[in-house]
Amino acid sequence: MKFSRTHSLEEIAEIIGVPFVGDADFPVEGLNEIHVVKPGDIVFVDHPKYYGKALESAATIILINKEVECPDGKALLISKDPFSDFNKLSRHFRPFERASSGISASATIGKTTVVQPNVFIGNHVTIGEHCVIHPNVTIYDHCVIGNHVIIHAGTVLGSDAFYFQKRPRGFDKLESVGRVVIEDHVEIGAACTIDKGVTADTTIGWGTKIDNQVQIAHDTLIGKKCLIASQVGIAGCNIIEDEVTIWGQVGIKSGLTIGKGVEIYAQSGVGMDLAPGKAYFGTPAVEARDKFREMSLIRSLPKLLEKIKK
User: Fold this and answer.
1) Which residues fall within 8 angstroms of residue 208, CB to CB, at 6 or more apart?
2) What single string gives the DSSP state of each residue in 252-274?
3) Which of 8, 21, 257, 303 has the highest count of CB atoms within 10 angstroms of its CB?
4) 296/4 Cα distance (integer angstroms)
5) Which residues are catalytic?
6) How far apart are CA 270 and CA 246, in angstroms?
7) CA–CA separation, 53 vs 173, rounded Å?
8) pLDDT value at position 303?
9) Residue 22: CA count within 13 A, CB half-sphere
10) Beta bridge mates, 204
11) Residue 258: which of 279, 271, 282, 241 has the closest Cα?
12) What CATH number has the domain spanning 2-93?
């Protein structure tokens, strides 16, 4: 998430009440998770295992729970609880805004777009031209929807990420301040849920078509002209490249890349990156031709056992 203006390191430190290492005027332009950081961003780290990754990332401000040597060209914010302080910054720069109407006055909606009854459209939402938003759709704050988009009844765009840190007292939630971005010519079926990014965007690419009852988690990027069938569940931070077909009831774990043109057969479980242009099946998903060969061999085992007995 980018701030509306550049802030100084000292200003940021004052907001969360922590000491800092670096020039007081060091520029701070936003905050982001490790996988999407850019120069000018704050990233947080609270475990020694990941100190190196955070310090060596593109982020130039590291919110960290230990005094360490500051890399050249970067700055540190020294916090007892980086997770909580990152949340404080998220809430400060994108506070929750209570809705005052079913369609926010701050929303921008194309004149040729049809919004059916009982649709909720939150604050600072942008919807393009020639869209149809069917009844009982919920569109949370800051979502961006392009042109020629169809969203069917009961779908929810922009719900919070399922992102929690275990603490002695229970689970603390990482605040979601990102967006959902729906590009042109996308169609989304009924009763789907697409979570916003934690700090960045969950994106559905141009021309992609999504069936009913699909869950797409935070920060996932779906490419152009993909087909996603009913009851698919896609975890967070995945990259689904262009022209991928995912059939019904597929589950995909977080942090994977599904290559261009991949086809995943129904009821498969994907737990690793998938190379482009191939078909996959099974749990864990492997190349479909290998899986079918394996299944054929298993079916032939009784006959082989009978031959051995003879």
Assistant:
1) 183, 186, 222, 223, 224, 225, 226, 227, 228
2) E-TT-EE-TT-EE-TT-EE-S-B
3) 21
4) 60
5) 218
6) 11
7) 23
8) 78
9) 28
10) 182, 222
11) 241
12) 3.40.1390.10
Q: Which residue(s) pair with 222 in the sheet?
A: 204, 240
Query: For strand 27-31 and strand 279-281, is the pairing parallel, antiparallel, or unpaired?
Result: unpaired
Q: Which two tokens stand for residue 247?
A: 């059939």
- Phi, then psi, of 287 in degrees rounded to 5: -55, 135
Token output for 276:
């482009």
Q: Is 63 exposed, middle or buried (0-12, 13-18, 19+ CB in 10 A)?
A: buried
DSSP string, 22-63: S-TT-EEEEE--GGG--TTEEEEE-SGGGHHHHHTSS-SEEE
Alpha carbon distance 249, 228 (integer Å): 10
Divide the 310 residues of the chain into consecutive groups of 10 and give the mean pLDDT of each group: 97 98 97 95 96 97 96 97 97 96 98 98 98 98 98 98 94 97 98 97 98 98 98 98 98 98 98 98 95 88 77
Please tell me the CATH code under which domain 108-289 is placed.
2.160.10.10
Q: Whole-prediction pTM value?
A: 0.93
The domains of the chain are located at 2-93, 108-289
Look up tokens 């990233």; give the residue.
43
| DSSP strand pairing (201-204 vs 209-210) | unpaired
CA 123, CA 108: separation in Å to the nearest integer?
Answer: 9
In terms of Cα–Cα distance, which of 248, 229, 235 is closest to 194?
A: 235
C-alpha distances out from residue 171 to 33, 47, 174, 216, 272, Å: 19, 17, 10, 22, 27
Residues in the chain: 310
- The residues pairing with 194 across neighbouring beta strands, listed in sequence order, are 157, 216
Structure tokens at 78: 């020294």
pLDDT at residue 310, rounded to an integer: 65
Structure tokens that stand for 249 in this block: 């009831």
Return the structure tokens found at 121: 């459209």
**Could you give the CA distance from residue 261 to residue 259 in angstroms, rounded to a whole number?**
6
